[in-house]
Task: structure prediction
Amino acid sequence: MKKVHLKTLAATTEPLPLFLIGLEQESLNDLSWTDETLGVSEYGFWQEVDATPPFDNLSTYDGTEVLTADAVTITVNVVRGVRLKTDAELLTEFKSTVPTQITKLQAMRAMKTVATPNGTLWVDFNNALATNTDAMDEWNLSPVLLRSNVYVAQLALYLGITERQLDELFILGASL
Result:
């Protein structure tokens, strides 16, 4: 709810005073009936309507808002400020979508979709496994691939895959 001065229609964001909690909305709309010593007799507490235009996932709220009281509907239209997300915010969101693990089947399917000069990433991966017995043991004995596994990182480095590309490979794998 928003606090509205009944004469000027100036709206502000303030908590509902404790002595008004439990009253029906009809009583809160116009508090001129209250004792002046309570300090709210020139006000009402009106329902808010979010009038913020929709925005894409590259934007977020900036913490500001424009309040416009509408005496006809006895509501306050609220338009929240929007800003573009920072690169750090976008990276954090992206990282939160990267699965911590995928099955070997998902990994294989994802690698088979990535073309390389030798055919596919799957072919390159198998060639790389042949040169690293620890990584081969890890692949053969682990039921899943952990994104944080040191051998996954080593193989990615060997294959020339960046951290971002590895994240994208895990996201792709999880979707297959």
